[in-house]
Automatic annotation (TrEMBL):
Ranges in coiled-coil conformation: none
Organism from which the protein derives: Streptomyces actuosus
Keywords (A to Z) from UniProt: Membrane, Transmembrane, Transmembrane helix
Highest taxon of the lineage: Bacteria
Keyword Membrane recorded: yes
The protein, known as: Molybdopterin-dependent oxidoreductase
Spans through the membrane: 20-43, 63-80, 86-106, 127-147, 159-182
PANTHER family named in the record: BLL0505 PROTEIN, PROTEIN-METHIONINE-SULFOXIDE REDUCTASE
Keyword Transmembrane: yes
Length: 413
């Protein structure tokens, strides 16, 4: 006879809502949602080209976990805006579903004996890793969006390794439980509980809401979170609805420079005296040596205009802005790379914060839309937007579009 006061006793859990049907419905939703979340997360990591240069790789020692990395493309130009917008918005939207799923299976965490068979032991282990992994991944992701890295450790390796541990447990759990979940869903209309009876309370309290009502509650909460997050990626008037995305909310000002800024000149430690036309010089190095260019020298080169957004890892993105400047491939040609633009290592005047330098692949340099921008929306760059010159590359994460550029080195990195 179990002590009803202990969570290991079936009688401790009294909710009439718990049961295999509710758990199965939530599980199928998470099967699709978390799989998409994992894939878009891997794409986000690949977009940094971490295997190109150590300055891009914020997750050293990934070993076999980087097997899928590929050269991030520049087309379509909105690719990162889409994949990272989906990743962050979906992650926020799934929070109520995850919490409901954890609530629905919590009796299993306390069930005794710990293992009745090998398959049951594997299921328990996968469940423990799942619970720990999902709480870790969703917590670090939400903190990164809301507080801009204000938690112990570096976001990139924590989230990357945590994702692999979590998804491995998730895949194992799906393999063990998917057949039973599908059988339970087939009995949706009959209301018969087939497998997972341990979730059903032997002495349930009187119901206050139906299971379908509980699903509507979870779905409504997810819809609310979706509606207060997705505007950061849609742009336009929808930005005003992005209440849960502080970095991607309404435009922070008006005029040509009135769009989102990921880090200000003050935060980056930029000395305005270094960015004046008399003091600032761009050093470009390549096959034939080095050249020093003033802003006036750059403006005498052929200038091109392109409409591109800035998209950030926190999920927010700007609308398309009109940038005007010198093509990166033309700068490569100045130092001996006329027909074969190579990779480039870009260094900034920035003193504080991550990504003070970044490496771009040859395909990014060769793209005619990749610019060292001098103007935005018809006006010179403001200091916060990277004056006197910044990189803008189609499809690249925002931090790869280096601001306050001081040096560009073309060639082997």
């Amino acid at each position: 006879m179990h002590d009803q006061r202990l969570p290991s006793s079936p009688g401790f859990w009294r909710s009439p809502l718990r049961g295999p049907w509710l758990t199965s419905v939530l599980g199928v939703v998470l099967l699709a949602g978390i799989t998409l979340l994992f894939v878009t997360g891997l794409l986000s990591y690949a977009a940094y080209n971490p295997d190109l240069s150590s300055v891009n790789d914020k997750t050293p020692g990934k070993g076999l976990l980087g097997f899928y990395l590929f050269a991030w493309p520049t087309s379509p130009y909105w690719l990162y805006r889409l994949t990272q917008g989906v990743h962050v918005t979906l992650g926020i939207t799934l929070i109520p579903v995850v919490l409901a799923k954890l609530w629905s299976v919590v009796p299993k965490l306390f069930a005794l004996p710990p293992a009745r068979s090998l398959s049951h032991a594997l299921e328990r282990i996968s469940l423990l890793l799942l619970v720990g992994g999902v709480l870790f991944e969703f917590t670090t992701g939400a903190l990164n969006i809301q507080l801009d890295y204000l938690f112990p450790g570096s976001f990139y390796p924590l989230h990357f390794y945590g994702a692999w541990v979590f998804f491995a447990a998730f895949a194992l759990h799906v393999a063990l439980r998917l057949p039973a979940a599908l059988r339970n869903l087939r009995h949706l209309r009959s209301g018969r509980e087939r497998e997972g009876e341990e979730l059903v309370s032997p002495q349930p309290d009187p119901p206050t809401v139906s299971r379908r009502g509980a699903l509507w509650l979870v779905g409504g909460a997810s819809l609310l979170l979706f509606g207060t997050t997705v505007g950061q990626s849609l742009g336009g008037a929808w930005r005003r609805t992005a209440l849960l995305a502080p970095h991607g909310g309404a435009d922070p000002g008006s005029g040509p420079g009135g769009f989102q800024i990921n880090k200000t000149a003050s935060y980056a430690g930029i000395d305005p005296r270094e960015t004046g036309d008399e003091a600032w010089r761009l050093v470009v190095t390549g096959r034939t040596g080095a050249v020093r260019l003033s802003r006036a020298d750059l403006m005498r080169m052929p200038l091109y205009s392109v409409a591109l957004p800035i998209a950030c890892v926190e999920g927010w993105s700007t609308d398309d802005q009109w940038w005007r400047g010198v093509r990166l491939r033309d700068l490569a040609a100045l130092v001996g790379h006329e027909s074969d633009p190579p990779d480039v290592f870009v260094e900034s005047l920035q003193r504080h914060g991550a990504f003070r330098s970044a490496a771009l692949r040859d395909n990014q340099v060769a793209d005619a839309r990749s610019l060292l921008a001098l103007y935005v929306n018809g006006e010179p760059l403001t200091l916060d937007h990277g004056h006197p010159a910044r990189v803008i590359v189609p499809g690249a994460p925002g931090v790869m579009n280096t601001k306050w550029v001081a040096r560009m080195t073309f060639g082997d990195l």
